[in-house]
Specification:
Strand content: 25-35%
Low-confidence stretches: none
Strand order of the largest sheet: 1-2-3
Structural class: alpha+beta
Number of helices: 2
Number of strands: 3
Protein name: Nitrate reductase
Distance between the termini: 36 Å
Length: 87
C-alpha cells in the first residue's frame, strides 16, 4: 500500500534539516512553531510538488512561504533566501 493508510506519506528525512535551518534563519525561540509541508500544487505554472514553510510565533502572528520544489530538494540556500515577510 503506497503511502500507508489514508494515503499518508512518511516524513522526508530532509524535513528535520529544513526545520532547523528555518529556526536558525529567523532566530526562533522555544515558543515558536515551525511547520514544513510538501503539497501538491494545481496552479498553472506551479511544480507538481511545493514545500510550504509556516512559522507560528508564540506571541501571536504567523508567516508563510512557498518554495516551488519538493521537500527533498529544498536546500539551506533556499531557506537563507526567504524574505522576512510572507512570499
Amino acid at each position: 500500500m503506497i503511502g500507508g493508510l489514508f494515503g499518508r506519506r512518511r516524513a522526508s528525512p530532509n524535513a528535520a534539516s529544513v526545520k532547523a535551518w528555518v529556526e536558525a534563519r529567523f532566530a526562533l525561540g522555544p515558543d515558536d512553531v515551525v511547520s514544513i509541508a510538501e503539497l501538491a500544487c494545481r496552479d498553472d505554472g506551479c511544480p507538481d510538488l511545493e514545500t510550504v514553510v509556516t512559522v507560528m510565533h508564540g506571541g501571536g502572528g504567523a508567516a508563510k512561504w512557498r518554495i516551488e520544489k519538493p521537500l527533498a530538494a529544498v536546500t539551506q540556500a533556499d531557506i537563507a533566501a526567504l524574505g522576512d515577510e510572507d512570499d
